[in-house]
Specification:
8 helices, mainly alpha
């Protein structure tokens, strides 16, 4: 499993940030969504948004979303196309939230990758320098503290450097302890990156399926879009 995650993480690092822009709703889908959400009954809008939020929180399948739309529509006396339209709007709302989640995860994977590079550079500096003074050691402590902040979903840049007043040579005991700490931080970042990359891949797959379902639903309601909006007012 760990080998699989490592392979996935490495491969995802080569996905450009613009990958989150793939599989976007068509202009026609966007137009219908905006017009419908602006004109239909506010009660329907509230239900659509709350159901979309539940869909993302619980990772509901397209079939489960359609089942909820069917139950809601039948209670409101809606016909088949109105129910399909409600399901479409829920999926559109959920896909917009999913897009924001994708951007956040991509940004986090990028931050993790950058932090790993900094940790490796710090370890190389220690290994290649005959001596390290306590001022340099302070910068390594800062790097480690920023790694912890990243793990805790805090802003690493909020952690500030506290410099030693005198630059004296660091003992081998302290230096060895720092190497162990940096190595542990690097392992921790690698594991965190693997899990975030797995989350990213799962969300991308789910959003791709959403786009396919949206396209199919839009085809079914294409000729009666304005009539549906009138029905839902």
């Amino acid at each position: 499993m760990k080998i699989l995650l490592s392979f996935l993480f490495c491969s995802l690092l080569f996905i450009p940030f613009t990958a989150t822009a793939q599989n976007e709703p068509s202009p026609e889908a966007e137009a219908f969504y905006k017009k419908a959400m602006a004109e239909i009954n506010a009660k329907h809008v509230r239900w659509i948004k709350s159901t979309a939020s539940e869909a993302n929180q619980k990772s509901l399948t397209d079939e489960e979303i359609h089942a909820r739309a069917s139950s809601y529509g039948l209670l409101g006396g809606m016909n088949g196309q109105d129910i399909q339209a409600i399901a479409f709007l829920v999926l559109m709302q959920a896909s917009k939230s999913a897009q924001e989640d994708l951007k956040a995860i991509m940004a986090k994977v990028k931050s993790i990758n950058e932090q790993k590079a900094k940790l490796r550079n710090a370890m190389n500096k220690i290994n290649n320098s005959p001596t390290i003074n306590n001022v340099q050691l302070d910068s390594f402590h800062l790097l480690s503290n920023r790694t912890i902040a990243l793990q805790q979903d805090r802003n690493p840049e909020s952690i500030k450097l506290v410099r030693s007043t005198r630059a004296k040579q660091v003992s081998k005991t302290d230096l060895d302890a720092m190497v162990v700490k940096l190595k542990g931080d690097l392992d921790s970042m690698s594991e965190m990156g693997e899990m975030e990359s797995l989350r990213l891949q799962m969300l991308m797959d789910r959003k791709s399926k959403m786009m396919s379902t949206l396209s199919n639903l839009l085809k079914k309601i294409h000729d009666t879009q304005q009539s549906i909006i009138q029905n839902l007012k």
